[in-house]
Structures are given as C-alpha cells and as structure tokens.
Amino acid sequence: MKKESIKRALVFLGVFVIFVLILILLLGLIRAFNYSQLDDLHPLIICDEKYLEKSDVLMIIPLWENDSIANYPEWCQKIKDYNKTLGMHGIRHSYNEFLNKVSEEDFKLALGEFEKCFGQSPEIFEPPHWQISKENKMLVKRYLPLTSDMQGIFHKVYHCGKDEESSYRFLGIKITNQKVEIF
Length: 183
What we know:
- Strand 7 and strand 8 form a beta hairpin.
- The protein has 2 domains: 1-33; 35-182, no CATH class.
- By secondary structure, it is α/β, with parallel strands linked by helices.
- The strands form 2 sheets. The chain has a 5-stranded parallel beta sheet. A 3-stranded antiparallel beta sheet has the order 6-7-8, with no helix packed on it.
- It is elongated and about 75 Å long.
- The protein contains 6 helices and 8 strands; from the N terminus they run αβαβαβαβααββββ.
C-alpha cells in the first residue's frame, strides 16, 4: 500500500512538472510574439536608443521631478516621429503615486502637459510600479484606458535609466535592460 501511494505521488509530481514546463514554454512564446513596451520616458531620464526603436508602446512620465515634457519640444517631436503608441506612465512617477489619492486637477494637469508635448492625448495609462487604488482606477478610467496589472507578464517591458529604480526582481532574479543577476 505504501509503495502504491509513493508511486501515485511520483506520477502526480511528474505530471505537475510537465504542466509547469508547458506553461513556461507557452508564456515564452506569447512574450516572443507579443508587443514590447518601454517605460519611464522623460527628457531627463537616460534612455538607450535601441529600446526606443524596438518598442511598440512608449510610456511617458509627463512631470518627472516636476519638469514638464512640454518644456522639451525637440524631444517631443523626436518621440512623436517614432510613430509608436504613446501612453502616460503616472504623473510624476513617485513611489506609490497611485496608491495615494490623486486629485483630478493634478491628473488633468499631466494630461494637458502630455497633449502640449505631442498634440494628442495618451492612448493608454499605466500606473507607476503597476500599483493603483480603486479610487484612482475610477479617476483614470474616466479619461484613459488603463493597462492591466498583469500586462508585464505577457509582453516585454524595458525601462529607461540605469539605476536600481529601473530594474525589477522576479523570483530572486534582478532584471534590467542590460543584464540579469541572480541573488
């Protein structure tokens, strides 16, 4: 009886491992053929040209360090000339920015700066760090489509900047645009 239980447990474990491997392979294929996105764009943030060229969606921070993107018309034109989907990535991209209450006035200010820069409204919105309160979700959805908090799983997301803030950790692996380090 004990051998039979062990045998069933091993078969179950084998099936489970195969299932997980198939899911990982499937996710890899979805990411390989899905669009790519570049987050954290602002004229004051260093961004590698290759990520601007290879990304399908560019997520812009309108008021990084309270400096409007509209103050940089050449940069605005350069970004617009890429002819990519342009989205708004927070207002100032501060920590927990959209977990705290965001005023409609502040949100509209950011929208206005985006429109001054590009001559159009953003096509989508993504909160910084993919975190947003229910109240802020309702605010954003009155003006723009909101990306899913799971969206980074199904397509490639690159980040501008070379500091620690431009990297993410997943299962103990530090993921950056340049390298992967295991901790």
